[in-house]
Amino acid sequence: MGSPTIEDLGPKVLARPDHQVSRGSLSSEALKVLYRLHRSGYAAYLVGGSVRDILLGKRPKDFDVATNARPQEIRRLFRNSRVIGRRFRLVHVYFRAGIVEVATFRASPEPPESPNDWEEAAAEEAEESTTTDRPQPATEDVVYGTPAEDARRRDFTVNALFYNIADFSIIDHVGGIEDLERGLIRTIGDPDQRFIEDPVRMMRALEYSVRLGFEIDERTSEAIVAQRDLIAEASAPRLTYELLESLRSGHAAGIHEAWRRAGVFTRAFPDLPIDTDESMRVLEMVDGEIASGRELSDPSLIGSYFLGRFLAIAEEETSETGRVDNPQVLGRLRESLDPASTSMHLSNQTLHLLHQGLFALTKMRRAPERGRQVLKLARQEYFKVAWELYGFAVTLGYISPDAYQGWKRALRKVGSK
Questions:
Q1: Active site residue ranges
Q2: Which residue among 7, 91, 129, 329 has its CA within the 20 to 30 Å range from the CA of 101?
Q3: Over the stretch 56-94, which tens digit does the pLDDT of each residue have?
Q4: What is the pTM of this model?
Q5: Distance CA 153, CA 161 (A)
Q6: Which of helix, strand or coil describes residue 67?
Q7: Residues 137, 94: contact at Cβ < 8 Å?
Q8: How far is 76 from 81, CA to CA, in rounded Å?
């Protein structure tokens, strides 16, 4: 007789005295959602990465909730909410401090993603109204389920822990507590199948490993090598989202190195330069900015990949008298950026800020001579991008410290910095 599977065993339950998750660990908004669901007769669990992070002594970035209430039932409980999604109906409950995402327990696994899913989700989020819902057809591939079924369809064991607001217990259906204690990233179920369902999970496994300082279990690691070619089939908006999340994490250099070693980076982003020592230095600078509490714009984050390449172009197109051939520089800049911007499906606004922010650096290589020049440039919408990239360029040695100090003084005078 074989050993019992996870499905054969009952859940592991940690009572309140046996774990460190408390109501004080949760945001007030998440507590409001959990308690209203619970007092209305529904199951209400805090789920996913927020439970994992609290158990590790970290402050969660987001708080997600799972319940047996159906989307329209959740919607009726919260006037400040909206049902979103086409394949998976989720409810976003809106507060001044942010959004709490509420999902109904599901039994169905994640099917392979559609290239349009993320574009459609972004379009929904861009709509101004948060209190009305558009009629949408029921999705046939979603099967609502039990908490145990919902846990088993998630990606990694450490992300499938539930905190039950009814009795303040931690519920573990998949061995996540043990893996958390061991410092292990492990897929729930067969790793090859889980990566076929959603190739981006390979990138996330490597990301979690770096961010949490965990090892990836052997079967999961072998499956990444076997299935990594599938990364190229993931939708561009989804990949771009993962890239930006990694850049905002404060661990970009380590994550990118893990992606590169595993062979997934070049498959996901073939048009992004990441194979030079300078590329890694820029990522380390991005991590330093994030660690200091600064928030960098998306165009600046993406522009950091191309900074060295662009400044080299600008130098090549500068005459001995210091005059820049602007049309030539702009043309070569577009040639450099267009393959990546097309493959990443960057918005026109992001691309515009990226182009103009980089190009503005050609006007900032020397300290300004006139206040009017400074004021004119500082008023441009792309100047924030230019200034963020300018700091990186100074650190890399492309811009002299004297020029940087000259711009800082001039900006203070005109009241822009």
A1: 62, 64, 155
A2: 7
A3: 999 998 999 999 999 999 999 999 999 988 667 899 999
A4: 0.85
A5: 12
A6: strand
A7: no
A8: 9
